[in-house]
UniProtKB/TrEMBL annotation:
Name of protein: Uncharacterized protein
Transmembrane keyword on record: yes
Parts of the chain that traverse the membrane: 53-73, 79-99
Positions with biased composition (Basic and acidic residues): 12-21
Membrane recorded as keyword: yes
Species classification: Eukaryota, Metazoa, Spiralia, Lophotrochozoa, Mollusca
Taxonomy, superkingdom: Eukaryota
Amino acid sequence: MLKKQSTIRRIKGADQSEDAKPAGQSRSVVITDRRGDYRGDIGRTRGQTDIMLGFRSSIVVVVIIVVVVAVVATATAVAASATSAAVAVVILMTILELVRRRQ
């Protein structure tokens, strides 16, 4: 019969039922191999980990969209101001040329 390669032990909250713990209370789960050597942790908080992962990814997407919109808006404003400045210079030069020809 084959033995399990890893063992999962609960460090906190092992003596309480899962439903009795309030959401968000931390629960550490340690994975060890057959000799008891440390292999990693799983399970940060009960009831909030998946929600927070979803929020984090959606927050990242929203931040990226806001940054892209801000960059595009800034570039558009700079281009518009440069265009309007160029148009204003052309109009001013035309007026000055007309005034000089009249004299």
